[in-house]
Write a structure and sequence with these properties.
This protein is α+β, with helices and mostly antiparallel strands. The protein folds into 3 domains: 71 residues, Immunoglobulin-like, CATH 2.60.40; 85 residues; 49 residues, no CATH class. 45% of the residues lie in helices and 18% in strands. The strands form 3 sheets. It has a 3-stranded antiparallel sheet, with no helix packed on it. Strands 2-5-4 form a 3-stranded antiparallel sheet, with no helix packed on it. The radius of gyration is 37 Å and the shape is elongated.
Length: 268
Amino acid sequence: MRNMRSGLIASLLACLFAGAAWCADDIIIHLQAINPLDKLQEKDVRRYLPPGLTTNDIVSLGDLQLAYDEAKAEFYVGKKIQLGPKEVKEFAFTVKDVWMIPEDVLAALRKEAADAGNALVKTDKERMGRDLSDGIIRTVNGISARQSNSRVGLVDADTHIKVFFESIDALEAVKGDMARLHGLSGASVRRDTPAVRTPAASAPEGGPAMTVAGTAVNSEKKPAQTSDGRKIAPAIIGVLLLVVAIAAIIILLRKRNAMSETGPDKES
């Protein structure tokens, strides 16, 4: 389970920090060895590398050594020592602080949420978009504040790392809300978009109403749409109107020819 979580964190960080300019500070991790007995005792002091940290992130081992635990399949820092009666010893090693989300990444998330929310203004999804956008920005601001209050030097290493993983969990929620926010853009309809009407084709003076295959041309028809709801290009609408007009003219010509052919018979 620990390895699976470490892999997830590594993947998330790789995606999150890709292209981000970020210089990590160093953090000192302390170890303490205590002999509670009144006699000499041998101790195996060790600290497994925290999740997200690799051996390449170790800056200094101090008096400790780097080793690998075959049973747990994890690296650790430590050593075997002897402690006198009631003796206490302190050890420390220095690593890069990989447990910080860069502020420029958080700023980019705020901007993305704001832009996506603004794109939904004057649409039927405006309120839903504003709620999602505001929620994302609040969560990101909370992450920024927690990181600021748990910087190296203000809290111990374990608290600093704990806050980082809480922030990662919060970012997972942000990712889901951001996907829903962008999904609203594809399903929204602008409230201020006027209806598009095709102009009615006029019949010759005194002629019959224009029909196509026995169906009257309706000048109030809704704009033609494709299967995905987008309006057909104006050029295509123009072609359709031209076809309707040509069909109407052909019908008129045929009726007039029929009338001219039957005219002499009526006179005789």
